[in-house]
């Protein structure tokens, strides 16, 4: 039974929630506005989600902000998103730090401007010692990239003679992935109505509960977040066992 499986008969809150924050563009279009105003409106929902995660005492919240495929968007939208990212990092980091939140950016950061990379490094350094919520922002992130870079790191260790191929196990590959040191993702929420993963966390979602809501990201607040958590609490996680086995474990208090 994985370490995450705690079946003590009590409702289990998630420890790690990941969110695909989708629907900003449609939110703006519905109002006859430019897509970028939807992204700006989405920042408020990010603040609310972080506050709620903090109140729930989650270990980690991981937000998908920009995928490795989002570079395909029109140049003006990409550059507006980058500017917004820089502005928000500048304006929010101190507040995160005051609240003991550790900020991490996951993804291939080499593609960002030097300026943005410096801002990211500074923000991570400032908050590195914080022990409250870990907030991961996935930027230029792709699940396939994550697995590929982990495989490359192991291949380099083999080439350097530090490892033989037969030593490679799931935990060893897992240790090379982004989020390796955090609790497994328990709950994935996607807003905006699509029911797909869009190359977000692939390996890490193996046993996550999936929750899709039509609510567009700028409209996603504490109420929507708590509905998602309530749905999670109501589900029976089996990790490959039968429902009867899980109920027996709960009855025996063996979890
Ligand atoms: C999600 O909202 C934000 C990013 C991908 C940056 P979208 O911009 O994808 O919004 P829709 O899906 O077009 O409504
Ligand atoms: C996924 O949303 C990426 C983020 C929310 C950052 P997209 O809107 O880019 O995904 P697709 O293109 O609909 O799959
Ligand atoms: Mg979208």
What is the average per-residue confidence, as pLDDT, rounded to a whole number? 94
The CATH topology, please?
Undecaprenyl pyrophosphate synthetase
CATH superfamily: Decaprenyl diphosphate synthase-like
- Distinct small-molecule ligands in the complex: 3-methylbut-3-enyl trihydrogen diphosphate, magnesium ion
Number of strands: 6
Order of helices and strands: EHHEHEHEHHEEHH
Question: Which strand order spans the largest sheet, edge to edge or round the barrel?
Answer: 3-4-2-1-5-6
CATH architecture call: 3-Layer(aba) Sandwich
Envelope shape:
globular
Number of domains: 1
Sheet/helix structural class:
alpha/beta
Rg: 19 Å
How large is the count of helical segments? 8
Structural features:
single chain, alpha/beta, Undecaprenyl pyrophosphate synthetase, 8 helices, 13% strand, disordered N terminus, binds 3-methylbut-3-enyl trihydrogen diphosphate, binds magnesium ion, metal-binding, magnesium, cell shape
């Amino acid at each position: 039974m994985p370490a995450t499986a705690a079946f003590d008969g009590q409702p289990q809150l998630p420890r790690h929630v990941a969110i695909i924050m989708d629907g900003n563009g449609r939110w703006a279009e519905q109002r006859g506005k430019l897509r970028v105003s939807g992204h700006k409106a989405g920042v408020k929902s990010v603040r609310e989600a972080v506050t709620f995660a903090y109140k729930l005492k989650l270990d980690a919240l991981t937000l998908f902000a920009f995928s490795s495929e989002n570079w395909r968007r029109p140049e003006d939208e990409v550059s507006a998103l980058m500017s917004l990212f820089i502005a928000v990092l500048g304006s929010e980091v101190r507040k995160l730090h005051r609240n003991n939140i550790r900020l991490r950016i996951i993804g291939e950061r080499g593609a960002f401007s030097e300026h943005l990379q410096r801002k990211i490094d500074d923000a991570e350094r400032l908050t590195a010692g914080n022990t409250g919520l870990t907030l991961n922002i996935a930027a230029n992130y792709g699940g396939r990239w994550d697995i590929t870079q982990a495989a490359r790191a192991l291949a380099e260790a083999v080439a350097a003679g530090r490892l033989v191929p037969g030593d490679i196990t799931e935990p060893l590959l897992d240790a090379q992935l982004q989020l390796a040191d955090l609790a497994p993702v328990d709950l994935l929420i996607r807003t905006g109505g699509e029911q797909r993963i869009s190359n977000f966390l692939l390996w890490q979602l193996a046993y996550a509960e999936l929750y899709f809501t039509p609510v567009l990201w700028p409209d996603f607040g504490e109420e929507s977040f708590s509905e998602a958590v309530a749905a999670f609490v109501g589900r029976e996680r089996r990790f490959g066992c039968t429902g009867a086995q899980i109920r027996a474990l709960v009855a025996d208090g063996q979890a």
